[in-house]
Design brief:
Helix content is 15%, strand content 36%. The protein contains six helices and 26 strands. The chain is elongated, with a radius of gyration of 38 Å.
Length: 437
């Protein structure tokens, strides 16, 4: 990268007669003399040169030569002879034309003492009988002598702002406990010249999560909540590339007993009939925490299998349930969830699900999910959420919830699963179907 120092502008009108100079050792030849005037009618024009007054040993710079507006084209396009010489001639300079005789690159040699270079520029336009001339001087300093110019004091950059959209501080979704994940979702906006490149979460002075925001949006998955129980705070900290720091304090409640009571309340409301537990899959030794849930994809086109996998990953993350995606038809003794496309059908919604059992009405042994034409019109993200929602009807709830989560009756518009719901799933699959809650 070219390092540009403070530039000065020198404009010199000169009638130049240059005496040949001799190289200082090394067997170098003397530079060629400046061309004499073509005739007595030759016109001389000023060249304006933009250049730094001093450079470091071994530094490379780019200079620009300009003239008055009327003769600019004559030097830039019509000049048929150029001549640039300098002294001292040794150590030599590397001079290269970049374009149109206007921009030149000069690389200075490494010197063991401060050296002043005088550089002469001459361009002769033989058709117009015009000479363009300039002379500049540049000091080449030893590297250790170069001191960076003092920097003016910089104002403190404004801290970024942080907006948290989840969880809400309602003594329910912000209740945490052991072995659950609290996903903090939000936005951060930079007020400085930098951009936010890091968002962190701290609890009890310990960093418990870190992420890089996706533009302004971020998510933090927290599964450690410190050693002290009770009401406490999560400090969300956003840092910009110019080291501006903004913070947001999120109130949470670390209480295993409260979390457990909320989980049981959820199960009684959404996963029971007459106070008895309804859940997916065989007896306790064959439940989804012992064997993976079979997702049958026999009829679904292969291109959509990855979306099913991502929907299953959502439930694995928050519940620990494992899944097996297969195209093999299940035997009658296996529990399973079928996903069937009916893309030529348009009932007015994207998907539906039905469940069934074999003998025990509290034990769900299969589920049938149908995807309709409307599902194809959704974005990839929404397609995934729809599938996860329908799987949730088999594994999680008997109907829709009214709690702002992925199973909310308002439709699968969120990818949220609260902490007490996560614990509810662990309780649910540690019990037998039909067991009292």
């Amino acid at each position: 990268m070219k390092k540009m120092l403070m530039f000065v502008v020198v404009t010199i009108l000169m009638s130049l007669t240059l005496v040949n100079t001799t190289g200082c050792g090394g067997g170098k030849k003397s530079p060629p003399p400046i061309s004499p005037p073509i005739d007595n009618t030759e016109k001389v024009e000023r060249l304006t040169v933009n250049y730094p007054p001093a450079v470091k040993s071994g530094e490379e710079i780019t200079i620009e030569l300009t003239t008055n507006k009327e003769t600019t084209d004559k030097i830039l396009e019509q000049a048929d002879k150029d001549n640039i010489v300098y002294e001292p001639y040794n150590p030599t300079l590397e001079i290269k034309k970049l374009q149109n005789n206007r921009f030149w690159k000069i690389k200075f040699p490494k010197v063991n003492k401060d050296t002043i270079y005088t550089i002469y520029f001459l361009f002769v336009n033989t058709r117009e009988n015009i000479r363009f001339e300039a002379q500049i001087q540049i000091l080449v300093r030893k590297t250790e002598d170069i001191q960076p110019p003092p920097q003016p004091p910089q104002p403190n950059p404004e801290p970024p702002s942080i907006q948290i959209v989840y969880p809400w501080e309602d003594n329910k979704v912000n209740v945490v406990g052991d072995n659950v994940i609290l996903t903090v979702k939000g936005y951060t906006y930079s007020r400085s010249n930098g951009y936010v490149n890091k968002v962190e979460a701290f609890i009890d002075n310990e960093k418990v999560a870190e992420t890089i925001p996706n533009y302004d949006y971020f998510e933090l998955d927290i599964n450690r909540f410190g050693n002290i129980k009770g009401n406490k705070q999560v400090i969300i900290r956003a840092t910009t590339t110019d080291n501006a720091i903004g913070e947001y304090r999120l109130n949470i409640i670390y209480d295993n007993n409260l979390l457990y009571s909320l989980a049981v309340e959820f199960l009684r409301k959404y996963s029971s009939i007459d106070g008895k537990l309804v859940r997916y899959g065989g007896d306790i030794t064959e439940g989804p925490y012992k064997k993976p849930v079979r997702i049958q994809l026999e009829y679904l086109p292969d291109e959509y299998h990855i979306l099913v996998q991502k929907a299953c990953d959502f439930w694995t993350k928050y519940t620990g349930i494992q899944f097996l995606l297969t195209k093999e038809r299940p035997t009658p003794d296996l529990a399973y969830i079928y996903i069937t496309p009916k893309f030529d059908s348009d009932p007015g919604y994207a998907a539906s699900v039905s469940t069934g059992h074999r003998g025990n009405s509290y034990e769900i042994t299969y589920g049938d999910i149908i995807l309709y034409k409307e599902w194809l019109t959704y974005s990839e993200y929404t397609k995934i959420v729809v599938i996860a929602h329908e799987i949730g009807h088999v594994l999680v709830t008997l109907g829709h919830t009214d709690e702002g989560d992925i199973m909310d009756y308002r439709g699968p518009t969120r990818d949220l699963f609260h902490t007490y719901q996560q614990l509810a799933m662990k309780i649910k699959y540690s019990k037998n179907p039909g067991e009292n809650l």
